[in-house]
UniProtKB/TrEMBL annotation:
NCBIfam families: ftsL_broad. It comes from Halomonas gemina. InterPro entries: Cell_div_FtsL. Keywords: Cell cycle, Cell division, Cell inner membrane, Cell membrane, Coiled coil, Membrane, Transmembrane, Transmembrane helix. HAMAP family: FtsL. This is Cell division protein FtsL. Its main location: membrane. The lineage of its organism: Bacteria, Pseudomonadati, Pseudomonadota, Gammaproteobacteria, Oceanospirillales. Belongs to the FtsL family. It is a single-pass type II membrane protein.
Amino acid sequence: MAQGRSAATSSFGWPLRLGASPLLLLVTLLLAACLGSALAVITTSHLTRDQYARLQQLEREQQQLQTEWGQLLLEESAWSSPARIERLARERLEMRLPEIDEVEVIRP
């Protein structure tokens, strides 16, 4: 009877055999590799979505800055027009164009 027990116990092991079989080790390694690969894909997808959202935000910001730059160029051209500068020189600084006899030419 003792032999029957030992035969049943040795075929099942407690709860598994202490020495891991190469097949069990291979399956465990493949499972770990699959889980690692899945986590890497998930992480990469998440980072890609984050970067794409950041890209869209920067493109919107670039468009707003381009619009503002265009408005500033228009404003600069309005403030620096020759007619405006001449009018301000007459009104505020009391400047005028010299007469012909007031012009002196200096030659080297």
